[in-house]
Design goal:
Elements (H helix, E strand, L loop, with lengths): L4 E7 L9 H19 L3 E7 L6 H11 L5 E3 L4 H14 L3 E3 L17 E3 L4 H15 L5 E5 L10 H12 L5 E5 L8 H10 L4 H11 L2
Parallel strand pairs: 1-2, 1-3, 3-4, 4-5, 6-7
Length: 214
C-alpha cells in the first residue's frame, strides 16, 4: 500500500470571497473520498489560511514543505500569494494546481513557473479574443477603462491584470484610465468624457452627444 498523497489546500478563510476555505475544502474532501473508494488510493487533505497575504501565505507553504507534508499544492487562489509559492514549487519540483494565475506572466511553462497548472484560462486568452473582435469590426483606436483599488497595500485588481494583457497585446499605446468602483466620489460622467476623447469612432461621437444632454 502506497503512502497517502498529501494535498495542501492554500486559500483564505474570508467567507466573503468566492474561493474561501470553507467553500473549497468540502469539495476537495469529497473528491478524495470518491477516488479512495474507486481505486483505494489514499489522500490526506491539509489546509491553511493564507489570508490572501503575500507574507503569511508563503510562510505556510514553507512550513508544510519542510515538514514533509506536501506532495501537491491546491492553490493558492490569491494572485499575490500564488506568485511566490509557484516559484518555490518550481525549486521543490512540487506540482501546483490553481484556479487563479490568469495574469500573463504565468503563461510561459518554464522556470520559475514550470510546475503550475492553471484550471481557469488566462487573461492573455481574453486579450486574443478582443484582438480578433477589434479586427472583425476594423476598430484601431481603443481606450481602456477599468476598476482598480486605490489602496495600494491591497495590490491590483483582476480588472487591472485583465486589461494589462490587452494593453500589452495592443502594443502598449492605448489610452487607459482606472477608477475605484467602491469610492463614493467617483465621477463617472467625467471619466466617460475623457474616454470618448481618446477612442474615436461613431460610438464615441454618439457618447459625446449623450453626455452633452446630461
Amino acid at each position: 500500500m502506497y503512502d497517502p498523497i498529501k494535498l495542501v489546500v492554500l486559500a483564505p478563510e474570508n467567507e466573503t470571497l468566492p474561493y474561501a476555505l470553507h467553500k473549497i475544502v468540502p469539495a476537495v474532501i469529497y473528491a478524495v473520498q470518491t477516488i479512495a473508494n474507486e481505486n483505494r488510493q489514499k489522500m490526506e487533505v491539509i489546509y491553511r489560511d493564507t489570508q490572501c497575504s503575500s507574507t503569511h501565505g508563503p510562510i505556510h507553504a514553507l512550513e508544510l514543505y519542510y515538514s514533509g507534508l506536501v506532495d501537491v499544492f491546491l492553490g493558492p487562489v490569491c494572485s499575490y500569494v500564488l506568485a511566490p509559492v509557484a516559484r518555490y514549487s518550481c525549486v521543490w519540483d512540487t506540482p501546483l494546481l490553481t484556479a487563479a494565475g490568469r495574469s500573463d506572466f504565468f503563461d510561459e511553462k518554464k522556470f520559475p513557473y514550470s510546475m503550475i497548472t492553471r484550471m481557469n484560462g488566462s487573461f492573455s486568452q481574453v486579450a486574443q479574443f478582443f484582438l480578433k473582435l477589434l479586427k472583425k469590426f476594423g476598430w484601431k483606436v481603443v481606450a481602456l477603462l477599468y476598476h482598480n483599488v486605490q489602496d495600494t497595500a491591497l495590490g491590483h485588481s483582476d480588472c487591472h491584470f485583465a486589461l494589462a494583457a490587452l494593453y500589452a497585446s495592443l502594443g502598449k499605446k492605448s489610452f487607459y484610465m482606472d477608477f475605484d468602483e467602491t469610492h463614493p466620489t467617483a465621477d463617472y460622467v467625467e471619466m466617460m468624457k475623457k474616454m470618448s476623447l481618446n477612442a474615436r469612432g461613431k460610438s464615441s461621437l454618439l457618447l459625446q452627444q449623450v453626455l452633452k444632454n446630461i
